Fold this protein.
Amino acid sequence: MLSDRSTPSPPTYDLGVSIETRRKLLDGALLALREHGVAGVSARSIAAAAGVNQALVFYHFGSVDELLSAACITVSEERFTNYGQRLAEATTLRELLDLSRRLHEEETAEGNISVLAQMLAGARTNPRLAEATSQALKLWTSPVEATLERLLATSPLRDVLDVPSLARAATATLIGLELYQGVDPAGADSAFSTFEQVAVLVEVADNLSPMAKRALRTILNRRKPR
Amino acid sequence: MLSDRSTPSPPTYDLGVSIETRRKLLDGALLALREHGVAGVSARSIAAAAGVNQALVFYHFGSVDELLSAACITVSEERFTNYGQRLAEATTLRELLDLSRRLHEEETAEGNISVLAQMLAGARTNPRLAEATSQALKLWTSPVEATLERLLATSPLRDVLDVPSLARAATATLIGLELYQGVDPAGADSAFSTFEQVAVLVEVADNLSPMAKRALRTILNRRKPR
DNA sequence: GTCTATACAACGATAGAC
DNA sequence: GTCTATCGTTGTATAGAC
């Protein structure tokens, strides 16, 4: 962000207010998705959440799917910057784990994981949503992937646990837990703790003595699936 | 199953064909849910999939939500029997893991995991679906939970990895991966392999020498979250 | 760019003939 | 129990006034 300039100019350039409206629609889409889910989201419910006219959905984005796609990608891009910087600071698996928990709590509280989960559910039967969600998900996994890659660079687990796959598996688990939350909040919380305990197991394995590491690698490779 | 009796009697008691129709509707609901997702499922799409009249949805189940709920619970109950028996045969974590993979492949192929995922997505904004999905999910986790409980009875991991939570975490992961499959099939596959590798890590930890087990337990307890 | 008005399809749900 | 027919609502999408 550049430092502010003199006069209290209006928030945007005011090209006929269109940019503000686009912004409202993008936010409204996320709000509606969180409130009604992919099953209940519509041009009307989005417009209501955005506080604008329903016809503007089609004027600015052409269709509801297109708006949902744009909203999902936009929010992911905005979050991505924040993520990358904070994850770059982690120097051990333990720090990464602690940081991940905090980031996950933030995103869950803001409803962004919920948005992703709903988009993924819609993506199963809607190619347009699938395309957009795929892009959005890459934005979320890539900083985690980069961090893992860095921290596991010298680990014996590296050629047993494929790093990109590990990042994806973790992402999938967090999304699964988000959905689980809706039907069993207490159970989802304790499941989350257990997920973390298992992650600690990875960390422990990574801190083994050189001899123990070699032994572990042998065992894991012997049982490598597929 | 009792052994068959003499005459080739009709498949059901034929109380005006109603039971057959109910069955068709239940199957149709699952089919429609798999094909159109929770966002696109409707009384009409279900009736089409079932090959019956649309009005019968309301005659037999009162509402679409009610039918979806019944379908989800019914398919889970039917699967539950199969599961319980096969899981009871596992005598080691390794066997449990292999069996789980096979069961998961079967259920994914039949589209049952997809149904569960779509129901969970809908459940986030629909209390009726939430109630039903909660019941259905318990049917899936409980046999896994019982098996884990049995196999980990004497494990040092037992008071660190809460067994019911472990079963839930695994379920959530499988559901998350199912959704991931829709936007990145190759990525989801490799993520699944990694999930299994991590599971093997649990198994390895469980096979440690008594002394190593104690040391591990100390580490894990020290880092117990929350 | 934004609004009102409207076309038209699909939705849940019910009434009534069979 | 099952069907046809239909009501009222809500959905996407567009035309045209402002």
User: Anything to note?
Assistant: Chain B touches chain A through 65 residues (CB under 8 Å). The CA atoms of residues 45 and 214 of chain B lie 57 Å apart. Residues 42-44, 54-55, 57-58, 63-64 of chain B lie near DNA strand C (CB under 10 Å from a C1'). Confidence is low (pLDDT under 50) at residues 1-14 of chain B.
